[in-house]
Amino acid sequence: MPEHLSETLHFTKNWQQQLAEAFNNIEDLCHYLHLSLNDLPVSVAAAKSFPLRVPLSFAASMQKGNPDDPLLRQVLPVKDELLAYPGFSNDPVGDLPSATQTGVLHKYHGRVLLINTGSCAINCRYCFRRNFPYSDLQLGKQDEIAGIRYIQENPDITEVILSGGDPLLLSDARLAKLFVQLSAIKHLKRIRIHSRLPIVLPARITDDLINTLTQCGKQVVIVVHCNHANEINPRVITAFNRLRNKGITLFNQSVLLKGVNDNVAVLCELSEQLFSHGIIPYYLHLLDKATGTGHFEVSEAVATDLIKQVQATLPGYLVPKLVKELPGALSKQAIL
Ligand SMILES: *Cc1c(COP(=O)(O)O)cnc(C)c1O
Ligand code: SF4
To answer: Among residues 97, 118, 127, which one has the least CA distance to residue 291?
Structure first.
């Protein structure tokens, strides 16, 4: 079957099927991209410790035949991951392992992070999560009850943030139940979801999901995670529009990544593209220094210089805040 026909068929399938058919080995992805393994610095060892995983919807936005494609770079297991970089460790932020035992992370005033799943639809090579063996973590009923009770008992908490992993990988039934429980908590004003699915698996944004999100009586915010304008394809735009049309506020956060978006023109185009579809740039994160991600690092000095140039080019509301995560701090740390 010609490739474009099988692709069209794939995108008519439901999100669970699309997820099940995601690329999970380097050879298939290379073949699809018309690349030879010899063109690429791939590492089988790196893929063993953190497997390749990428839905076709995301891979379809990669440029065929381009070994340096900025989307491919985000997902391809490469030899550089095996190098030791000074200052990089298995636990750079220091709090995720503990949060994944209780499901609750209350670090900043008024906001609490609920971690319901450790799974993701895509494996991003730069992610700090790569070093923790909790990829299939599903918090049990008891943990969820404890998490809800914690929020009920703390009237200072006005916003719940669903994070992970990717909270939108939870089933509709599971999410619906969680939203009903959260909607009953009076002091809660907002429910925020941090998810990469609108970008990497936009088929997840179904009518049922949107109904669940919008019927809870709280303001709903979704922070998507897009690093490069090429990730915004027609399927992603449809997902954005459907969410926005139902009154969900959309922000974007990116990670500043060498060889992906460490470039003024690329950062400006990302902000422009996002905003043309109603998404406000929120954060540009410096990389968390997790083992295996050193080749993505952009120094703070270079980052500062880049964001100053973006600032000199775009209106203020299109300039994301450049931030980093510091253990023990009361908020993300602004760099500029
Ligand atoms: C990033 C983060 C938040 C959200 O911070 P905002 O600045 O409100 O986006 C909340 N809790 C934890 C633990 C976080 O890491
Ligand atoms: S948590 Fe986010 S950055 Fe990390 S692998 Fe999942 S989707 Fe990618």
So the answer is: 127
> What is the average pLDDT across 187-212?
98
Q: How many residues does the chain have?
A: 336
**How much distance in Å is there from the Cα of 331 to the middle of ligand 1?**
7
The answer to whether 80 and 126 have CB atoms below 8 angstroms apart is: no
CATH superfamily placement of domain 96-334: Aldolase class I (3.20.20.70)
Residue scoring higher pLDDT (300 or 326): 300
pLDDT at res. 59: 98
50 CA distance to ligand 2 middle (Å): 12
Instruction: Specify the domain boundaries for CATH 3.20.20.70 within the chain.
Output: 96-334
Give the closest residue to 306 by CA, choosing from 254, 255, 262.
262
Q: Is the CB of 251 under 6 A from ligand 1?
A: no
pTM of the model: 0.96
Asked if residue 10 has its Cβ within 6 Å of ligand 1, the reply is no
